[in-house]
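Budget justification, computational time. The allocation requested in the original proposal was used primarily to generate structure tokens for proteins on the priority list. As evidence of use, we reproduce two of the resulting records. The first is shown immediately below.
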Amino acid sequence: MDATGKGALTREQMLSALDVQIEPLFVPEWGGTVYVRSLDGKGRDRFEGSRVRVDGHGKIELLHDNTRARLLALTVCDADGALLFTEEDIELLGKKNAAALDRIFDVAQRLSALRPADVE
């Protein structure tokens, strides 16, 4: 038994758990609702990996170009959780209203535990 008294999860229970969170968000700048989902492990690694670069001297550089649009491409979805955007859409997303991007970015960060307080 574990600390909860329920016993340890099996492999099948872990792999079949419905653990993706999806949240509707009204975006007034766009006049409608979008759905935002939490990142899965692969998406989080992809996002975090896209935010750093190592130069020829081994120095790590943090990248900030289109950070919001990159996270939105990995988290904005339909009501069933299917992503709406691809890597090719990031430049176009980055040209959208900054307030709308911020609004969605905040929800995506919260759902995926990416806020500074979550990372600490």
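The second record produced under the same allocation is shown here.
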Amino acid sequence: MLFDRRLRAYSIDTSLAFLLVLIVTFIIYDFKISYSIKYSIVAVIYLGVYIIPNLISPGQTFGKRVQKLKVIKNRGYEGKEYQVPSRFLLVLRELLKAAFTIFTFGFYLIIAGIVSNNRSDGRSIHDFIFGTRVIALTRYSDERIERFVGEEMKATLKGTSYYD
């Protein structure tokens, strides 16, 4: 169940990134600037979809927020002690995941999906590298979050659309 939600969250983020890159590509196509600047703009937009949400709401990209997932530290939690990694660590995690995906032409995603799907805790390769895990904040992605999240997790969700 967690794997399906992680896959949907990644699909949402990737679709958003692709849509924004496509729109910006059409906008800057006729600009009289070098190709390296155009490629840089596209790369910044693509990576921005994965990085900027982690700076605003640590542990959640747009897709993870929609699917009610959150990245937390993997230190043996007992259902109460959720800790969100630092923004720096989350940004590095996303950059490494993007680099592995790009340099292996997407093959990394297949391997990471197999690893994640075959583990009871749902951790993937980049989760092992950074000592993180992804948790579901609710049993189902369409349930209200208040029924399943403790007070300590609500504090980490301040500033998100859930607890403004």
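A brief technical remark on that second record: Residues 116 and 124 are 5 Å apart (CA to CA).
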